[in-house]
Specification:
alpha+beta; TATA-Binding Protein; 2 domains; five-stranded mixed beta sheet
Length: about 300
Amino acid sequence: MSYDVYFLPNGAAPDLQTLQDWFAGRPHFTVSGGQNGFAQAEYEYADTDVHMIFDLGAPDTEDDTAPPGTVAMLILNFNRPLHFACVAARIVSDLMQSHDLHIYDPQTDSTFAGPLDQLAFVARYTDHARRAMQAVTAQHPDFQAHTRPGALIRAVHDWNAGRAAREDALDQDFFVPQVQWFLDKDTPRTFFVWSDATITISPATDAVLMMRNELTPKRGLFGGSKAWVNLLSWDAYCDLCGPGLVERPDGTFAHDWTHVDALNARVAAFDATPGFALSAARKEGFMMLTASQVLDAELFG
């Protein structure tokens, strides 16, 4: 199930090569095809897991929904977090403005001219996505979606989308981690990977996956060691870092460079106890989720 939008020219239609070049010049797009009057532009942003497809050129002759003169089509799956539509709205708006296009929405049998009302676009997608998910749950009572509040999902997306810019803007050398998801019983929870006490700036997450290689505790007669992995709750992470972790005015948390040696010593000396790790993850294993698998709870409310 997908939300489909068709693009039509207001005047002279852009040719296929023009559209291919436009998409190829945008971040996170890969353009393929171009033969037989058809191409595809695929958006995929690895840090955020947002992805969508634009078909370029004349639509398939079997597509009886496409209006005559269609030059492109957006295909946006419904079984996705709602912020996918926010990203799509910006791209749709730019495409319409750059090539003097309007759009046809077959879901509402409506035509929309530019400039695009992006909030209204997202609202239309949300309405149809909610109906689609309700239909799925009605037809398949055993269907179980992984959900969290939309505000949290968008906050994770915005953090990941802004990682590079944040890292570039910092006046000290910090690692800005990608916030990811894992499944704790039936609940998606957030975490990031922290390796060998790397000096890090991050938001508060449900857990921290601490990985140690250089700072692994030494064992045995010859002081040997092997890599250790511990899943810490956020409170346990804060306790482990001690005064070496400082909350910043923007609500993020950063390690203090003046406590680097003490932080390394605390991490190297850490030994896992049941009170430190998330109990569900310890007993049932660690199952990661992609960002696109965690849906807004509001879709099912």
